[in-house]
Amino acid sequence: MNFKPVYIVDGARTPFLKARNAPGPFSAGDLATAAGRALLARQSFAPDQLDEVILGCASPGADEVNIGRVVALRLGCGHKVPGWTVMRNCASGMQALDSAIANIHSGRSHLVLAGGVDALSRAPLLYSDAMVLWFAQLAMAKTLGEKVRAFLRLKPAALLTPVIGLLKGLTDPVVGLSMGQTAENLAWRFGIDRQQMDAFSVRSHRRVAAAQDAGHFGEIVPLLDRDGKVYGADDGVRRDSSLAGLAKLKPYFDPKYGNITAGNSSQITDGAAWLILASEEAVARHGLQPLARISDARWAGLDPAQMGLGPVHAATPILRRHGLGLNDLDAWEINEAFAAQVLACIAAWQDADYCRSQLGLDGALGTLDQDKLNVDGGAIALGHPVGASGTRIVLHLTHVLRRTGGRKGIAAICIGGGQGGAMLVEAC
User: Fold this and answer.
1) Which one, out of 225, 351, 364, 375, has a CA that is 20 to 30 A from the CA of 46?
2) Is 90 a catalytic residue?
3) How far is CA 49 from CA 55, 74, 284, in A?
């Protein structure tokens, strides 16, 4: 396969803000605009010199349905720069990057702003179908008597109970399982116990805390709300996270037999992330200094009930194409949807039967060195704004490679519905 590299010129993201049972201070459009504005302000080209803006979003607001175009206009890209929105569940932000890569490869674009966003705290509460039908009947009532009879049919307890849109979105309609239940499947399949999950979660929080203290999240641009409050850092990290504390939490997705809790799952979060991608021609034209290049990308499909193994199915073909072993890479970013899910990916690569039957290998691929994996923590501590995470892991992988002097790394993500995505990044 001839994959012409595409250059990562720069990138930025907002702090990831944990949802706290109420709409957060920023809409998805606010988040994407704030991060994009700061990123574009430091470039040598004007926003209207972009060829297009592509934004991944899994849950756009009703007033920002084509949020990519809305944000492009707010960023001052002008009327002539197209803006569009993509959605591939948890990998929407990575899909935006891949869509930009495809257009750069075809020659249709040379300089693209691509990223992802979600404000999950603002996911809607919905009426049930029965309530919607009641509204329809009320609207069709003509006389006072008909309206009174319609009101008498109203049963508040049954009809006014809201449907939580986010929970519906995180449940696969084909297999009827929530994402957490699919992670329970993986824990059972590979014998991953509660203590392993909780230990992985504690490590994620500790790594994020250490990275914050060391200033390793330089890609973050602060947010300012209408009251003048500054949001300068990811706020979901729990510095006091411990095995004893996590052990007190009850299983959420399978209360009787399960082991997955809110503490060893990714957090519901608001956030946005962007990359500027460029062709070699655009790099020369604008005198750009790229940070890295995306040298390969892969999408894979698998059983939706096992969706957390998506990174294995997407990253393995990249490794094989480039003649690489798991630890020939200098860094890995695997999105932490659930501790059990990441641990299952590691276990699958170690499982000779799985590698033979599902990946077409001769035997086990090996044991991933976890000192190379999510070195600054991941979504369990940072949060997982679904549309943004695919961009975030590519952006942070780029920063890790540059900071450590590494040459190559892979960012990989599992995707609700039974898919996986991965990108090979090489430092410039």
Assistant:
1) 225
2) yes
3) 17, 15, 14
Interatomic CA distance for residues 55 and 277, integer angstroms: 13
The SS3 call for residue 179 is: helix
Burial of 120 (0-12, 13-18, 19+ CB in 10 A): buried
3-state secondary structure of 177: strand
Nearest alpha-carbon partner for 399 in 222, 224, 214 = 214
CATH superfamily to which 177-216+294-427 belongs: Thiolase/Chalcone synthase (3.40.47.10)
Q: Are 158 and 98 in contact (CB under 8 A)?
A: no
The tokens 């060893």 sit on which residue? 264
* Residue tagged active-site, from 57, 345, 355, 414: 414
Residues 6 or more apart whose CB falls under 8 angstroms from that of 278 comprise: 6, 7, 9, 104, 110, 111, 112, 286, 288, 290
| Domain parsing of the chain, residue ranges | 128-161, 177-216+294-427
- At residue 92, the pLDDT reads 98
Q: Which residues of the chain have pLDDT under 70?
A: 1-2, 158-159
Q: Are 376 and 211 in contact (CB under 8 A)?
A: yes
pTM of the model: 0.94
- DSSP 3-state helix, strand, coil percentages of the chain (rounded to 5)? 45, 20, 35
Coil, strand or helix at 319: helix
Task: Give every CB contact of residue 276 below 8 A, 6+ residues apart in sequence.
Answer: 8, 9, 10, 11, 39, 43, 111, 112, 113, 114
* Tokens matching residue 158: 């049954």
Residue labelled with tokens 């077409």: 360
Q: How many CB atoms lie within 10 A of CB 284?
A: 10
> Does residue 414 carry a catalytic annotation?
yes
Question: Which pair of structure tokens corresponds to residue 293?
Answer: 């290049």
Contact 339, 373 (CB under 8 A): no
Tokens of 273: 């992330």
What residues contact 298, with CB distance under 8 A and at least 6 apart? 314, 315, 317, 318, 421, 422, 423
